[in-house]
Each structure stands twice: as C-alpha cells, then as structure tokens.
Amino acid sequence: MTISTIAKLEDFLAQQLLSPQGYAQYGSGDVSKSELTPFVTELRKISQAYVAHEVGARLSSPINGTTAAEAYALYYTIINAAKIAHLFPLMSFNTPSISMLDVGCGPGTAALALLAAGSKSLDLTCVEHSAAMRSVAERLLSKWKGEAVVSRMRIKASLNVISQGSFDLVVAGNMLAELEEEESLRTLRALISRVSEGGYLLLLEPGQQLHSRRLMALRDRVCVEYPDLVPQFPCLRDDACPMLASSSTDWCHGTIEWRQPKLNAQFDDLLSFNKHRIKYSAFLFQRGGSLKDGVRVISAPSKERAGIETLLCGKDLYGIARIRKGARSELNRPLEKASVFDRLMVSSPCTGNLPEDVEVVAAPNS
Ligand SMILES: C[S@@+](CC[C@H](N)C(=O)[O-])C[C@H]1O[C@@H](n2cnc3c(N)ncnc32)[C@H](O)[C@@H]1O
Description:
Helix content: 25-40%
Number of domains: 2
CATH superfamily of the largest domain: Vaccinia Virus protein VP39
CATH class of the largest domain: Alpha Beta
Low-confidence stretches: none
Strand content: 15-25%
Number of strands: 15
Number of helices: 11
CATH architecture of the largest domain: 3-Layer(aba) Sandwich
Radius of gyration: 21 Å
Distance between the termini: 14 Å
Shape: globular
Bound molecules: S-adenosylmethionine
CATH topology of the largest domain: Rossmann fold
Order of helices and strands: HHHHEHEHEEHEHEHEHEEEEEHEEE
C-alpha cells in the first residue's frame, strides 16, 4: 500500500461527501467543526453500537440514514480500505478485470480500496442490506475516476437475488461480526460457493480479540469443510489453528503502521479516538491454491532474559524461536528484525534455541 493510495481515497471521499466549502477547507487545512459535527454525532452512535455489541449476537445496524452512511464512509471506510489495500498484493489475477463480490459492502469499501490502489478494473457485485449504505455506495462508485475503473456494477440487497456465478474475489469485510453464529456460518458457506477456481476469499473482521478469535474458529471450519480452499494468509497450514487450541485469550492479528490521512486524524481528535496504528485480523484463502512455505511471524521479536524471542507458526510447527545472546549472527538477523506476519524461510530447526548458523531469509510477496 502506498501512502498516496489512502490519501487519494480520503480526498475522493471528502470531495464527494463534504459540502463544497468543507472540501475547500479540507484542501487547505482543517475542516470546520460545524461541517463535521453531524458526522461526528453519527460516528459516536455507530461506535457506541459496535462497542456495546455482544460478539456472537446479531448487531442491529446503527447505520439507519444517509448521514450515518456518509459518516461511516468518511471515517471507517478509510481505515478498512487501508487494511484491504495492505492485503491486496497477496493476490494475483491473470485477467485484465477482476470480478468481485463484496457482501456487506457498506459504502463500497473493498471496491474503493482496490480502485484507489490502481488495480485492474472491476466487474463489481455488491450486496448490502442497508438502503442508506447501498445508496452511498452507488453514488461513490459511479463517481470514481482513475486508472482503474468499474466496468460493470450491480448493488443488491441480498445475495439470494444474485444469479448463480462465481467470482475471482469474494470479500466479507467486517460483516460476519454482525451476525449470530448460525447465520454467519450459513452466509460464509454461501460466499464460498461463489469463489471461482483459482479465486480468492478474503475475510476481514474488526481487529479486536473476541472478533478475531471468532474468525479463527470460522477459519478452522473452512479448512475442515472445504479442503480445496487453501489458506494463503496468514496461515501456512490447513489443519486446526494451534493458537486457538492452545490459548483461550491469544488472537492472531497484525498492525498496520500508516500515515493517517488528515480528515481521519481530525475525526480522531473530535471523537477522542486513536487510529494512529490499525489492528486487523484477516484470512485469505484461494480455491485450488497451494500452501506457502516457510514460517509466519506471529509476535514481534522481543528481548527476553534468555535472548530474543518470537512466536512462529508454520506447517507442523508452532512455538517460540529464541536467539540467545551468544548465537546472534548476520545469518539469523532477519528474525530479530522481523515484523508480525512476515513470512520467513528458516533453515531448520525453527523453534527453541536457534544456532548461530541458522539462516533466516525474508520471503518476498508474503
Ligand atoms: C461494518 S459494515 C462493513 C462495511 C464494509 N464491508 C467495510 O468493511 O467497511 C457491515 C455491513 O454489512 C451489512 N450486512 C450485514 N449483514 C449482511 C448480510 N447478510 N447481507 C448484506 N449485508 C449485510 C450491514 O448492513 C453493514 O452495512
């Protein structure tokens, strides 16, 4: 994700959703408080509903009008699009245009992320329950102008009305979290049935412990029920998640360091929120794909008494790798420098105390 991807998207959203005066202010500095107050009021309500929502129960959507949908687009869409743009390079498509199904699309978040990232053009199918969200999505996506374009678009209220057909990319972003258990599983199965051969399924959920652990459990179900859907990220294995099995609190998640765009930062100031860094949990599968080699860094390397330690996960492997003080070397330095979710190629052994001569190499396009 380049800095300009998200800055470009925020600029577009500000242009479409603020008044002409508000957008002029945005161009030269802070937007006036009076312009932002209606959005801030809605964002407060939306955030309160998300916080109060009991994980595993159905969320009664707090987005019930145009201003709420626009507020969501101005604040949350930027954050969620940053996550999708960050994950997009993990996928590869051979066709000049990507057919994408985005279920629970909100204001068109996933499509906007891909368009801003300047990817290929999109043959887009969106599904969204909320009429207000659908209308904002339609307004935004029909106005987008850039290198990548929407070649065809349909936005529907329910997946049931989308005639059979499969897609290169199926996305459910922060949507399964709003459903109760049985419904989320039923919806997930319906989404899976729409992934084409070689196509991808991207599940993204709020970067919070309970949502993330629920998503990890869904990932386990997918691996058992659909062996042809092969994990691509972050998992390098397709058996049960060892973190979920060995801990009742740990949650598999990453953090994106971003240059927070200015309107998003202004909303943070007005709302006393803090999105300087964004946590996310996501799983990417490919139908008919292959598992990737190596090991995934699950916790950032930290200096402990016994040496530098990091949690690694890979095929048949889950545990702490440690570089003792006397064993630090140029060869194993990439482990010390690794970030969460980096994929590393490590000459064995991978867990326990690593010898000085173990070689660690970062894998490209992880
Ligand atoms: C938190 S928003 C996420 C929007 C967007 N995907 C994003 O990541 O920014 C979740 C959206 O999913 C929609 N939704 C929930 N369940 C749905 C379903 N079964 N079918 C279609 N839309 C659904 C809600 O109306 C809401 O707009």
